[in-house]
Write a structure and sequence with these properties.
By secondary structure, the chain is α/β, with parallel strands linked by helices. Helices cover 40% and strands 16% of the residues. It contains 8 helices and 10 strands. The radius of gyration is 18 Å and the shape is globular.
């Protein structure tokens, strides 16, 4: 099981770069960031762009993988996103993973002046967005007409450093999204079941995650793919456990062991942010990063 972290883009780079470099020093497999224009309780504070932040992080590090967790169609278009991702993959020397999801109803859904999309429209857009982005990252020139997204002789030479393209980590829990993960993903991402976040138990969360993985397996079977081919990524902090796994190394190892048994191959921990939902003891966090992997085997 790999351990990764997600670093919210809330600090000016003169300070923020130290966090990305420290994440590499601690041995995290990857460091991700959210791709939002602002987010929830952080909306009225500093918040920087994901892809410029990742480009700067690529220049400030040498080994750690980098990525979004996750981007969405809410304010992105596949043509422009593909060009930026190819550039980021080049700058990083092929260390980028694209986390991608269908988006939601937060600030990003209306900031461009549009009405928020219905769940069906988000699913429809996502179903067009991912395959077109796949083509744009693997072909030199793409022309495609869609209901929501089109490309006209879009050029993407020389393509990604990673071949045939940088990996997709597809966030999904519904049937259409899981089929996209099965067809186009190198990894699948979940935060758990949001319906039980407030009132559920850790045991109920484990059962819900087991059900999600079973559905992913069915989606893979429908496409003729083995579910074992996909990495399974849990973005922590959104299950009923909340921040308890970060209270001690032992607590985390217990949490991680239960989820490894489900089949998860990567756990992503929020870098501690004081006075927020992601508050945690920094020293304990760093001990988890350095000591837990050996205990997990």
């Amino acid at each position: 099981m790999r351990l990764s972290t997600v670093i919210l883009p809330i600090h000016r780079w003169s300070e923020g770069q130290k966090t990305w470099q420290r994440a590499e020093e601690l041995g995290f497999h990857a460091a991700y960031t959210y791709d939002h224009l602002s987010w929830r309780t952080f909306r009225d504070g500093p918040w920087f762009g994901a892809l410029p932040t990742l480009t700067a992080a690529a220049a400030a590090t040498t080994r750690i993988r980098l990525g979004t967790l996750v981007t969405s169609p809410n304010f992105r278009h596949p043509v422009t996103l593909a060009k930026e991702l190819i550039t980021l993959d080049d700058v990083s020397g092929g260390r980028v993973t694209l986390g991608i999801g269908a988006g939601g109803n937060g600030f990003d859904a209306t900031v461009l002046g549009q009405e928020p999309w219905t769940p069906k429209e988000r699913a429809d857009r996502f179903a067009e967005f991912v395959p077109l982005l796949d083509r744009l990252l693997t072909e030199d020139a793409v022309t495609q007409r869609g209901t929501f997204y089109s490309a006209d002789e879009a050029r993407n030479i020389p393509g990604c450093v990673q071949r045939p393209r940088l990996p997709f980590a597809v966030a999904a829990t519904g049937p259409r999204g899981l089929r996209l993960a099965a067809r186009h993903g190198q990894a699948w991402v979940t935060t758990g079941d949001p319906k039980i976040f407030e009132t559920g138990t850790p045991e109920e969360s484990v059962a819900a995650l087991r059900g999600q993985i079973e559905k992913l397996g069915k989606a893979c079977a429908e496409t003729g793919r083995e579910v074992a081919e996909l990495d399974k990524v849990l973005l922590t902090g959104f299950t009923p456990d909340r921040g308890r796994p970060l209270e001690s190394v032992d607590a985390f190892v217990d949490f991680a062991g239960r989820h490894r048994e489900l089949g998860f191959t990567e756990l992503v921990l929020h870098w501690p942010i004081p006075d927020s939902d992601f508050a945690a003891d920094r020293q304990v966090f760093e001990r988890i990063a350095t000591e837990a992997p050996a205990q997990l085997g």
